[in-house]
C-alpha cells in the first residue's frame, strides 16, 4: 500500500478511510431508496443535501458549508429538490433578507423513510466487525467531532 511519508503503512490515510466509507454509506442508502420506488426522482448528488438539511430550517450558506458544497452547487441541488416538491424556502423571521430551507411534507417522508435503511445499514456494518468494534469506532469519531466543536474548529456545523 502506497502511503505519504509519516503515515502508517498498514492502513489507508484517515481521509481515504472517511471518504470511502461515506461513499459506501451513501451508495447503499441510495440503492435501498431506489428499491422502494417512492423517491425515484432523487439523484445520488441530492444525498449531500438530505444528509444535512434537518427539519428546523437552514440558510443556504449554512447548508452549503455543512454539506461541504460550493454555494452554487448547493443552490442548484436545493432548486432541484424544491422543483420536485421536497423542499421549500420560507422567510427567515430573524432576518427579513434571508430565507430558510425546510423539507415539505413530501421531504419529511424522505427523512422518515431513511431511518430504517440507515439502522439496517449500521447493523450490517456492525456485523462485519468483531463485537463492539463498530460502536467504539462510531463513539470515537463522535468524540472527535465534539472535540473540534468545543475548540470552535469544526467546519461545516
List keywords for this structure.
157 residues, mainly alpha, Arc Repressor Mutant, subunit A, two-stranded antiparallel sheet, 6 helices, 56% helix, 10% strand
Model description:
By secondary structure, the chain is mainly alpha-helical. It has one domain: Arc Repressor Mutant, subunit A. The protein is 56% helix and 10% strand. The chain has a two-stranded antiparallel ribbon with strand order 1-2. Helix 3 crosses helix 4. The two termini are 34 Å apart.
Report the span from N to C terminus: 34 Å
Q: Tell me the CATH architecture.
A: Orthogonal Bundle
The main pleated sheet reads as: 2 strands, antiparallel
Total count of domains: 1
Secondary-structure map:
Blueprint: H1 14-36, H2 47-50, H3 60-67, H4 71-83, E1 87-92, E2 95-103, H5 105-126, H6 133-150
Helix pairs in contact: 1-5, 3-4
Outline:
This protein is mainly α and about 160 residues long. It has a single domain, classed as Arc Repressor Mutant, subunit A (Orthogonal Bundle), CATH 1.10.10.
